[in-house]
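REQUEST FORM: STRUCTURE PREDICTION
Request ID: SP-0412
Submitted by: Lab K.M.
Chain count: 1
Length (residues): 299
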Amino acid sequence: MGHDAGLSLDTDTEHLTHHLGHAGAHQHFWVAMLLTLGFAVIEAIAGVWSGSLALISDAGHMVTDSSALALAAMAAWLARRPPSARHTYGLVRLEVLAALSNGVLMLVLIAWIAFEAVQRLAAPQAVQGEMVMVVAAIGLLVNLLVAWRLHQGGHDLNTRAALLHVMGDALGSVAALISGAVIYWVGWLWMDPALSVLVAVLILASALRLLKDAVQVLLEAVPAHIDLAAIAHGLAQIPGVNSVHDLHVWSLSSGQVALSAHLDVASLTEWPRILAAARAHLSPLGIGHATLQAEPSPS
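STATUS: Completed
RESULT:
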């Protein structure tokens, strides 16, 4: 009969750091959301008044960002809840679901901007370039402030998703600023929808990358920075371990990696020593949740 032995690489310091990280992100998300939503209203009014698609699309982008930031803030708050009998790992995966939802929202927004831009390219509309420049410049400053606030909150998948939205906003503001300047000084009305399409294409690449990362976590794929073969080889090289099987490595959420494996050992009496050696092998790899089962090798 096999004997189970649990190996937990969590420490009180790690739990506290993770908790404080979510707490900080939670506060930064709400501040960023209020700033973004407040300016989105101003930008939408200015976009309609000036006739600028670049401003209207950027305002729509910022409204979408506001909901995305609110979703991210809620996920960060819920992720702070401790494990329960129903959710033994806590609710840390909510940040991944929030990132996935935000990525899908980005794709919808990109499609809308592209559709509107094609309509405007076919039938250019008058745009008040001077107003566009002023509002876009203020919007760029707001976006940079929001991005700075979010950057202080951490680098997990949820925060990356929120930052993607905000940096997309910043690109939209830059595009609107350039568009307003060109229209004001040169009179090229097609510049407004053309730059909107360019920004949409730039955001698309980042949105797809974010969606890929979120889906990989939900599919419990081996994290990109983890070499599964190297882990197996290292565990098998521990004196007293004959083989390693049923090895699984996956992400619970951003920055939280879990592992489980069965180790065939020559003698169960050696298990405490083997367990300590396994701890030394896995800890530098950033694996915070590891469960190892000792199994006596067949004679």
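NOTES: Confidence is low (pLDDT under 50) at residues 1-24.
Reviewed by: T.R.
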